[in-house]
DNA sequence: TCGTCATATATCGAGTTGATATATTATGCA
DNA sequence: TGCATAATATATCAACTCGATATATGACGA
């Protein structure tokens, strides 16, 4: 399930422009799947070439033309087919944990600040998810996904608070051994 | 903190070959940061060109030459410098949640199987982390990172078990509306 | 004997990010 | 009034990364 297929799936639910698809990727989806214009626009072009999408180009006054994409019947079949395949494993890249690998090399104050900051960031994310899903418009699927994000980020915050001492006892206690 | 810098950091802790670095990325690190040969070998070459690494090429009987990389003093400084920068946000791509977006389009049996499989996969990961960190050799940092992984995956399993009904009530109850 | 795993390096196509370019209108704010 | 910034809308590009593949050889078990 790459971005190309995910665009096809989103258009199966509702026709949209590339710009609107990008907005969708900035909603609840953003917590577990990101996509940039640099992948979305080429994906839409390729899907159109392949006959899985049609493009209705709408001239607008005072705005660039809108290209509204809709799924063809071949597109619907292709997407249903892609849904049958076993989804790949989660891919995670945490620069925070990567830096924590080197806790011993960091001055204690700096390490503690990094952990504080990360806890704040996760709390912000949780608050953000709450705002996104507070609306009456959220269906079961959206509720499920938002809840998933909250569960995971809450667990991360809890873990950091309960176990940060493991790292903080390892860090340089005010010394500057870092440059040795 | 890209793979290039992370290689430099690992070599700061211990000199190694590209092959050994790949092995390191397959340990506890693998749960939050992955790297392939296709990024590791070019990274080592570039770091060497830049004077941040030195390479000791050891001819071996009956084996390809080993290239053992060590960090130069310039390399140490460059890495300490990189550690000062605020780590970027976590990047997560979950194909599983992407597929769950389309729960309505899936036959109920298929959906349930997907969720069962994902719970099993997370449980396997937790068991795998336990094995990795059971050894006496694990230091505080490794313990911290393994614990983080366990906390997050446990929360995910718990959430899936408690909330799967939200999706399962949305799925096609045995019908084949999928192709409509 | 045959397959497969481990050791070891390397490359390449394809997918992706983040920045940047282009052009116009709307909005806030001093 | 003027000026910066955000929003609407599409598009491209260098740099990074993955997953597969290539190349060689030895060991180990079926």
From TrEMBL, chains A, B:
UniProt xrefs under InterPro entries: Tscrpt_reg_PadR_N (IPR005149), WH-like_DNA-bd_sf (IPR036388), WH_DNA-bd_sf (IPR036390)
Residue stretches making up the Transcription regulator PadR N-terminal domain: 8-78
Any one Pfam family match given in the protein's UniProt record, by short name: PadR
Protein name: Transcriptional regulator PadR-like family protein
Originating species: Oceanibacterium hippocampi
């Amino acid at each position: 399930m790459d971005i190309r297929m995910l665009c096809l799936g989103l258009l199966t639910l509702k026709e949209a422009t590339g710009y609107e698809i990008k907005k969708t990727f900035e909603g609840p989806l953003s917590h577990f799947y990101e996509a940039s214009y640099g992948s979305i626009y080429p994906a839409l072009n390729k899907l159109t070439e392949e006959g899985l999408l049609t493009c209705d180009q709408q001239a607008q006054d005072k705005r660039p033309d809108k290209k509204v994409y809709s799924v063809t019947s071949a597109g619907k079949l292709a997407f249903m087919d892609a849904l049958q395949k076993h989804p790949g494993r989660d891919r995670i890249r945490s620069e925070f944990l990567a830096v924590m690998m080197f806790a011993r090399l960091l001055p204690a104050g700096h390490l503690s600040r990094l952990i504080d900051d990360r806890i704040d960031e996760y709390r912000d994310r949780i608050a953000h998810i709450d705002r996104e899903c507070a609306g009456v418009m959220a269906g079961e699927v959206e509720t499920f996904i938002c809840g998933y994000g909250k569960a995971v980020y809450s667990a991360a915050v809890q873990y950091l608070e309960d176990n940060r001492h493991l790292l903080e006892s390892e860090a340089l206690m005010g010394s500057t051994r870092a440059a040795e």
